[in-house]
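[agent] plan:
  1. take the single chain provided in the ticket
  2. run structure prediction with default settings
  3. attach structure tokens to the ticket
  4. add a short note for the reviewer (M.T.)
[agent] executing step 1
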Amino acid sequence: MVLVLNGCGKAEEPATLSRNSIVIHEDHTVDTYISEDFDTSVYSDIELMDFLNKEVSEYTAVNPGSVTVGDTRLENNHISLNISYSSIQACNDNMDGILFIGTVGDAFDNNVDMNVSLYVVGAGIKTVGKLDLVNMRDEKLIVVNGKYTIRAPGKIKYYSQWMELLDDYTVQPLEDKGSSYYIIYE
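[agent] step 2 finished; step 3 output follows
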């Protein structure tokens, strides 16, 4: 059985759509691409879509236009879906606060754990740490809790250990390493 639902999506699908991905746009809208195995013995595809649509309807009743379900595909017990959020807050409200976006200074001011080492893009294994980050307060920062391929709205300058740089704008976590991932971008 194949379930395909089409909606209005604004992001280009990342080449890594076979992984869970987050695309953050310059205006801080967010597109998530979820790709996971789906056990139809637990509940049906119809039950899944009914649950998803109910959750989105309840949230958008209070926050109109904040969440849009895009393309959804269920095939061979695997589901792929795109959900778009109008803001970082809408994304966090619906995905258990997985995302921080702001400046390095905002992160320090909001008690985000900044005791990290980040690779410098183009500098081999050179890293910067917390003491360096204190002096980088105006740099743009993304912190993601969870294993997602992340596409930043600007060129990536620094990224967490336990990640690999896929292109100038995209990083992905390495398997079974880390739980929070940091990206500084232009």
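[agent] step 4 note for reviewer: Residues 21 and 148 are 5 Å apart (CA to CA).
[agent] ticket updated
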